[in-house]
Fold this protein.
Amino acid sequence: MQRLATKGRWDAFCHTISSIPPKYLYILFLLMAAGISFHSWYSSQDMERWTRYNNFLIFKQAFSHLVHNQDLYVLYESEYYDLYKYSPSFALWMGVFAWMPDVPALICWNIMNVVVFIIAIRTLPVKKEKQSILLLFLAIEMMIALTSSQINVFITGFFILAWHCMENKKIWLAALLLVVTVYIKLFGVVAMSLFLLYPQRWKAALYTVFWTAVIAVMPLMVISWDQLLFLYKSWGHLLANDYSASYGVSVMGWWHTWFNMDISKQLFMLVAAAIFMAPFLPILYNREPKYNLSMLASVLIWVVIFNHKGESPTYIIALTGVAIWYFTQERPSTLNTILVLLTLVFTSFSSTDLITPYWIARTYVEPYAVKAVFCSIVWLKIVMEPFFVASAETATIRSGKLQRAA
């Protein structure tokens, strides 16, 4: 009875929200991008050393370091804290923003992220009455991501757009979009597994190799070959050292802090990769294109919950995966509705001081990787579904054969 009551209240809430035209929420997201950007800049004016938009400064200053033949992968304490951990090509692309003062550059940066995200969301097969609910479901996580001035919103959009291109047989464009994400954050490689679901696999592999080579040498527009090789070696050295540094807000972090488990990262990732790839076997064997969207949701969640450097602002990627899984269902079950509500509470609500007191978020939510818990449960449900359906279909076929034999 309690489950039915919960689902009833959720359905009533969804019906109310569905009456809001999606375009108003698109406008809200764009205003959010501009407002958060300006607030980040304005609230940094009384800070003695660094800023509240430090991530964007890391990206922006990388272009200057690139064109001046400096090592991108050392700390520049006079400019920002933390390290640049992305490719030389991404540093080149940041030249689009590097010439602008911080305020307009930051506003344009966050608006770009949101525009790409909105374009991507519009390609999803979500019923019109659910579009506004989906956007509102992601609103808090969007705010968290924009406040960090990172590029997670953009990457989420490119993953979805790549899937859309695969569905429409634009394999060359899908490969380009995914290769771009790899040159920003290496976990974009995981999304390339989606090519397995489509018949043009060899063509996808060739396009991927082509775009990988083209983008790799793009920095030669402003630096020498020797400097480019030096930067790739420096980047590789940084990533190798960075891998063992922490567990992050991930499944590894969750198990380590909750159960005091000392986990071999290599073994853990191998097991996680095996579980991730397992659903592809029944899907490919039965040629079930209906699962293509579920595998996109799986990718979006996996790259976050198994990321050893996962942090709160990256969860816009995972929560979008959860939203795709839930809001594209024809008739979500009561269990799925409860799961999605718990994910919303413990992923989004738990990490914003608009709802959860700051001291709780800093003392419990982040150190204990709470954001990873229900995203992980949803992900397991996604990857297990093809097996359950295949087992049920097999049982039905066998039952039919027995009845005919009788």
User: Anything to note?
Assistant: The first helix runs from residue 2 to 18. The two ends are 42 Å apart (CA to CA). Residues 391-398 have pLDDT under 50 and may be disordered. Residues 125 and 328 are 7 Å apart (CA to CA).
